[in-house]
Structure formats: C-alpha cells, structure tokens
Specification:
Elements (H helix, E strand, L loop, with lengths): L16 E7 L5 H4 L12 H6 L1 H10 L5 E4 L3 H15 L4 E3 L45 H18 L4 E6 L1 H12 L3 H4 L9 E7 L2 E9 L4
Parallel strand pairs: 1-4, 2-3, 2-4
Antiparallel strand pairs: 1-5, 5-6
Organism: Rhizosaccharibacter radicis
InterPro entries: His_Pase_superF_clade-1, His_PPase_superfam, PGM_Phosphatase
Protein name: Histidine phosphatase family protein
Length: about 220
C-alpha cells in the first residue's frame, strides 16, 4: 500500500470533535476566469480524471466512521462522490449552508482584470477583495468568519466525540482556521488552501487545536 503524507491520527478521546476540511476539486476553466464565489459552477471534468490518485489517497486516509457534510453547491457534492467512489465507500452526507463559500453579491461573474473598478477598498494580497468589504448583496470575509465560527461550534457540540469530513470551500476553510487560531479574517487570507487539500481541526474542552493545514493527498 502506498504511503500517505498525512499524520497518523489517534483515536478521539471523550469531549473532542475532529474536522477534516477538504476544499472541493478544481472548477471548470471558464468559471475560473471570473469571480464565482458562491455561484454554483461545475467541476473541471479533465481534472477529475487526472487527479484520480489524489481521490484514492483521500479515500484511504479519511476515517471510516466519519459524519460527512457538504455545502449547498454541487461542486462539493461531486467531490464527495468522487472520494467515495475512489474506495471510501458510500456514505450519506448532510448539506450545511453555514459552510458555503463567501457570497460576492453583485461582483459575481466579473472578470478579474476588471474587478478593481468595482471595489471600495484595496484587495488583499491573496484574495480578490478586502476582508472588510461586503459587496452589494453579498458578505465580507469578516462576516464569513463569524458565520463559519458559529457553524463549527454548533457542529462540534452536536457531534462530540466524532470525526466530521466536510467538503467545503477555500474561503470557508480559511475562516475556520481564523476561528481555531484566533486570528483576523485578513490574516486568514494569507493561508494557502489548495483544491483537494485537507485541513484538520480539533475542538477540545480546552479549546481549538490546529493539526494540519493544506495537506495534499498522495503527494
């Protein structure tokens, strides 16, 4: 059996909830040319085939008795399906709106090279808009951090002593890290969270613990 790059995870002690946060697979090429945020865009079919070894590595590594969560967007459903079909096996999942990607409101669908004309604040170095900017009809990253923090705490309470596999989004995972680390929304946007990477967070009685961020399966 091939070796995984992931850390061997101990059995959960009482009072601990462990989250396996996986960013969905790469979306199709045309969508990547625009700011798609919380729009429901499809995955790239060629990448789904080319990255088969990564799905297989995820299927081997994820805990067998985990509770599965996806967001309302189909790209998380398709990613979850691909992991399960790669060897994990069928598992029911729950749709969690609290883990959806940042809504860009009226900025949705704009090409990146024209985005600057519509912004009030300078963008972050590694994110298309400022952490404090809430586009019309959308939400700021600061608001996303609040939403995700509430969702994490609620799920940790509801699933005490269990592993949770959550197929979600890059902004969501950065917001989750902000909550666990106690850092600002702007600081969290400096974290790299690649497609199909795994970030593992644990909620202990003493507080949150970050086990790993942006681990890539099978590499």
């Amino acid at each position: 059996m091939s070796q995984s790059t992931f850390l061997d995870m101990p059995v959960l002690p009482p009072g601990v909830t462990r989250f396996w946060l996986i960013r969905h697979a790469l979306v199709e090429q045309n969508a990547r040319l625009t700011l798609y945020g919380s729009l429901d865009v499809p995955l790239c079919p060629d990448t789904l085939v080319a990255q088969a070894p990564m799905y297989e590595a995820l299927a081997r590594r994820l805990p067998r008795d985990a509770r599965w969560i996806v967001t309302p967007l189909s790209r998380t459903h398709r990613t979850a399906q691909a992991i399960q079909e790669a060897g994990y096996g069928a598992a029911d999942w729950t749709v969690e709106p609290g883990f959806i990607e940042q809504s860009m409101g009226e900025l949705h669908g704009l090409e990146y090279d024209t985005l600057h004309r519509h912004l009030r604040l300078p963008p972050e170095p590694f994110w298309p808009i400022n952490a404090a900017e809430a586009p019309a009809g959308g939400e700021s990253m600061e608001q996303v951090c609040g939403r995700v923090a509430e969702t994490l705490d609620r799920l940790a309470d509801a699933h005490d002593g269990h592993d949770i596999v959550a197929i979600t989004h890059g902004g969501t995972i950065r917001a989750a890290c902000a909550h666990a680390l106690g850092i600002s929304a702007a600081a969290s946007l400096r974290l790299s969270v690649q497609n199909l990477s795994v970030t593992i967070l644990e909620r202990h009685p003493a507080g949150w613990r970050v086990v790993t961020i942006n681990e890539l399966p099978g590499i």
